[in-house]
Design brief:
Enolase-like, domain 1; 3 domains; alpha/beta; 22 strands; FAD/NAD(P)-binding domain; globular; five-stranded parallel sheet; 463 residues; single chain; seven-stranded mixed sheet; binds nicotinamide-adenine-dinucleotide
């Protein structure tokens, strides 16, 4: 077996792993990265964030051409869907980006191993299932193997009619009736895609609200908007079974009559990929939820073995994994490295988008923290008016005594981009007055954040 020596061996080339590998190489380490898939980029690039965003963009344009352009004085007599072309475009976007990472690996002299990496004794990673078995000896091993869709008891995944987000990115035809289990990020994003393309979409959610973890007021407003878009919801509804039979499916949920549909999307969360890595044999500790236990510097209990991203605690988000990968590797090389978990944004790319950073009103109330709240509706924002995108609002929460920004929650056009300013403000410890006194170009959507900051203080100008 071929044996090579490295400073850092990364297992997994998703956003956590590939970014850590690049940062390590930039800092002078000799780096290897092991990935079992032929394409680099992990779930995010291949079967997650990127293809879903490509489809969200295409389906929104289709929907707008159908129903939204007339308001702008543009008549479109006939709009037709070419689903095959839409799916091909999505695949091309993915292909270009995954190739881009291959290029970055070459540029940074990172040695790529295709196959399944397994930790063996003495800080060794064995790569199997690829072109040829290899053995990597590494001073540091970083586990960044990500997560996979969580199964649900009674739901029989058949990889076709009843599937996860992976199948829902490539349905060969628009389903007549799609039942989505779970009103989280994946359920709402992919449910929106197929609703826009013409499917009847029914979302079944266990809790009595959508988007658990997001600010309840903002999620409640979003829920009403999605209902107006024609998505059906049953909240407080626990799914107990789903079966495919003869070209259709039946879904059973407590309190509902069985639902007959032609496709089912299971989106009830994700579980960490920790199997087959040799963790038990290596003595790496796992917590009660199956995640790898790490300290604040991402070190496991076994010297020389580290873990980041979806396999450890915290939100399962690509950008959180990236931050952790960089912090972990920088700490190894420079002695410093830090992730500010209080300022990790979350974005749901529906239409309108929903974006959030910091604490929600519920969390502040629960912690007994006195706060002031500033709200500004996009209805009163000139740019939103000209775009014809007036649904939603910006909500800013500031500490009642220090005025420090504690949380920002946005429902509205390009919320996912707008949240970046709020993240930067919070990262620099800004007060709501700081945000309000920064000059924002007019007319832009970003003025809504300035106005919400004003509303938290002495009053918004335009509302
Ligand atoms: P999620 O945790 O966001 O939502 C899952 C939902 O399923 C929850 O609302 C939960 O209450 C519900 N549920 C659980 N059991 C149920 C049952 N038996 N019947 C009905 N409902 C049930 O999970 P997800 O949407 O699958 O996303 C998985 C992960 O991927 C999340 O951690 C998310 O952060 C990440 N993700 C992020 C983005 C983004 O950042 N835009 C997009 C997609 C996925």
């Amino acid at each position: 077996m071929d044996t090579q020596q490295f400073d850092l061996a990364v297992i997994g080339a998703g956003p956590g792993g590939y970014v850590a590998a690049i940062r390590g190489a930039q800092l002078g380490l000799k780096v290897a990265c092991v990935e079992r898939e032929s394409q680099l980029g992990g779930t995010c690039l291949r079967i997650g964030c990127i293809p879903s965003k490509a489809l969200l963009e295409s389906s929104e344009r289709f929907h707008e051409a159908h129903t939204g352009l007339a308001a702008h004085g543009i008549r479109t007599d006939r709009v037709e869907l070419d689903l095959a072309a839409m799916l091909q475009r999505k695949d091309k976007v993915v292909q270009l980006l995954t190739r881009g990472i291959e290029g970055l690996f070459k540029k940074n002299h990172i040695t790529r191993f295709t196959g399944t990496g397994k930790i063996a004794a003495g800080n060794t990673v064995v790569v199997e299932g690829g072109e040829q078995p290899s053995e990597l000896r590494a001073t540091h091993i970083l586990i960044a193997t990500g997560s996979r869709s969580a199964p649900l008891d009674g739901v029989e995944l058949d990889g076709d009619r009843i599937g996860t987000s992976t199948e829902a990115l490539s349905y060969p035809e628009v389903p007549e009736h799609l039942v989505v289990i779970g009103a989280g990020y994946i359920g709402l994003e992919l449910g929106s895609v197929w609703r826009r393309l013409g499917a009847k979409v029914t979302v079944l959610e266990f809790l009595d609200r959508i988007l658990p973890g997001m600010d309840a007021e903002i999620a409640g407003e979003a829920h009403k908007i999605f209902q107006k878009q024609g998505i059906g919801f049953h909240l407080g509804c626990r799914v107990t079974a789903a079966r495919a039979n003869d070209g259709h499916c039946v879904v059973e949920a407590e309190g509902l009559a069985p639902i007959r549909c032609d496709r089912v999307l299971l989106a009830v969360g994700r579980v960490p990929n920790t199997e087959g890595l040799g963790l038990h044999e290596a003595g790496v500790a796992i917590d009660a939820r199956g995640r790898i236990e790490v300290d604040e510097y991402f070190a496991t209990n076994v010297p020389g073995i580290y873990a980041i991203g979806d396999v450890i605690r915290g939100p399962m988000l690509a950008h959180k994994a990236e931050e952790e990968g960089v912090a972990c590797v920088e700490r190894l090389v420079t002695g410093h490295g830090h992730v500010d978990y209080a300022t990790i944004p979350g974005v749901c790319y529906t239409h309108p988008e929903i974006a959030s950073v910091g604490r929600t009103e519920e969390q502040l109330r629960e912690a007994g923290i006195e706060y002031r709240k500033g709200v500004f509706p996009f209805l009163a924002n000139g740019r939103a008016r000209s775009l014809g995108e007036t649904a939603g609002r910006v909500k800013l929460l500031a500490d009642a005594s220090t005025d420090r920004v504690l949380g920002v929650h946005i429902l509205g056009p390009r919320a996912g981009d707008l949240i970046a300013e709020a993240v930067a403000a919070m990262a620099f410890g800004a007060s709501s007055e700081d945000v309000a006194r920064v000059c924002h170009a007019h007319p832009t959507l970003s003025e809504a954040l300035k106005e919400a900051a004003l509303a938290a203080g002495t009053g918004a100008i335009h509302a």
